[in-house]
Automatic annotation (TrEMBL), chains A, B:
InterPro entries: Phytyl_CoA_dOase-like (IPR008775). Keywords: Dioxygenase, Oxidoreductase. It holds the Pfam family PhyH. This is Phytanoyl-CoA dioxygenase. GO terms for molecular function: 2-oxoglutarate-dependent dioxygenase activity; iron ion binding. It comes from Crinalium epipsammum PCC 9333. The keyword DNA-binding does not apply.
Amino acid sequence: MELTQEQFNTYQKEGFLVVPEYFSQLEVENMKGELPALFAEDSPRRVLEKDGDTVRAVHGSHSTNQLFKRLTRHPKIVSPARQILGSQVYVYQFKINAKAAFSGDFWQWHQDFIFWRKQDGLLTPRIMNAMILLDDMNEFNGALFVIPGSHKEGMIDVTSPQLQEINNNLTGDKKQEWLLSFTANLKYSLPQEIVQELALKYGMYAIKAPAGSAVFFDSNIAHASPNNISPFSRSIVIVTYNSVENIPVPVENPRPEFIVSRDYLPVEALSGDALLLPSLI
Amino acid sequence: MELTQEQFNTYQKEGFLVVPEYFSQLEVENMKGELPALFAEDSPRRVLEKDGDTVRAVHGSHSTNQLFKRLTRHPKIVSPARQILGSQVYVYQFKINAKAAFSGDFWQWHQDFIFWRKQDGLLTPRIMNAMILLDDMNEFNGALFVIPGSHKEGMIDVTSPQLQEINNNLTGDKKQEWLLSFTANLKYSLPQEIVQELALKYGMYAIKAPAGSAVFFDSNIAHASPNNISPFSRSIVIVTYNSVENIPVPVENPRPEFIVSRDYLPVEALSGDALLLPSLI
């Protein structure tokens, strides 16, 4: 279940690849069926919107939920990940971003890799994301904006005044610092001047695709998404695969295991019907 | 410079009409050239974003700025307004909405007429908006979302709990109450259930058009716009025309003249080059 040469080339050139309706409606329904229970669980894995009520994201569900565990081993995403990274891979991170109807807040412009480099000791960007849309992503509900080709710039080492300010405002419990990576005030967001420069250089693209579509994207592509003021929720799952040849170096105060997995065993792919066998779950 | 029969029919049916590139690039440049001075003026006419710094809107500039005064008398918008309202018209309201790059906040779902009815004593919706885009409005910078046909529902009399809450939180200066109509917490926003219902019934449409385009829209069409996280500012001018046969009844605590004009004299149209004669300004 590898990508075609053309798909592979697109990914390399643009830094992302959209595969429309990659998973079936039934597979999507199975996954969506797991969300209410995961969203209802009051746990540090869960990040809320600023309203303190709506679920913004849930982390590490692949270690608690059997269906999502199976998703991380699905050949439709494991094979492309191996192909792109050129090695065996393991699950580095797993998250569900909800972007709820009427409430889902924006994500600032950022590259993913810098978060992993600065916080987790990941030295090279031999890591990639597989995003699966559990709802249609359209022009109304906060489509993912990317700057195609911006991954070629590599990691842009931002040290934004915002970051300083946020850090200065931090009180007490330093262990909660990782939360800053998942709120609307992103810790390593790209400065406006840089986004403008990148947009002028590369243009901008809004990813719109039906539920079940997959988006593979580079850890250094600049991306963002606006708020969701529509009546349509827009939930996605992101499985981040790292090369087994790119194990992070130890850091002080590592982020929780449910944010950054320290299980470096290569994933083994299941069969293609991995999300369709309820009796096995 | 009236609308064609087809354009007129579209307006009646959908509740809005987009006329792409209605004003020339030069006319747009002339208008944009006026913005910095208007935005810089520290005045009650000016509404800021939540950041307390970025300009969100400026009101009533047609009474202080000669070019925008001329815009309100431009035959390209006065004639359609007369045609749609079936009478002479006067300028009820004038505003510039900035929606600045990276900062412009969203506008909640609402109908315009209820604001005018509840606050200004306007009894019937024989009133309409002419919006002129001073920048391209695209899928990245907070396009205007409308629910086509929703104007046929008439005014939906919302009494939202939010409103109660906002009102309860109001301190001291009651005269500033009008401000609530222009912040992200809209006083008469439509409840989520109603927006969902309308969207299911009528669908949703995102208006995207180049700078210079005009959008005529009904005072009862449900509309909203998301935040602008892009590097592209998206400024618009909205001239609201009321029928001279629809003069509001007196109300207690009327809003300021720069929000609701009490000059009921019919506008007289200028010639088509009204925005191109700098010597006359």
